[in-house]
Amino acid sequence: MILVDSSVWIPFFNGQNTRQVQKLDKALGENIVLIGDLILTEVLQGFRHDKDYLSAMNLLTILEIRTLGGRDNSIRSAQNYRSLRRQGVTVRKTIDIFIGTYCMENRIQLLHNDKDFYPMEMYLGLDVY
Predict the structure, then answer these.
(1) Does the global pTM surpass 0.85?
(2) Which structural domain, as residue segments, surrounds residue 90?
């Protein structure tokens, strides 16, 4: 199973041919691809035109949608954030801590293109697709 971050979905919908988009194309045919509720919001809120929004919503809601928040993940995410801060690393976006922690706690690979996840890989063991 692979959880795909908005940093990959956005270039995907913009028709960009990045390395991560190529990996997403491959994963859609070979793996179970998940999307998180917070990621779904990040992606969908960026569409300017209703037609594009509806098209993306129809595609993304076919995927299994996972709830990234909740009590346990919130506490564990705060612990991970604090652990990284002790290492001298500050993650810029709280949502990224939620996403990374969810993946680590549930042993799910993450496909991303966001530098906030690199310290989670290095210090916390985040598994990247």
Answers:
(1) yes
(2) 2-124
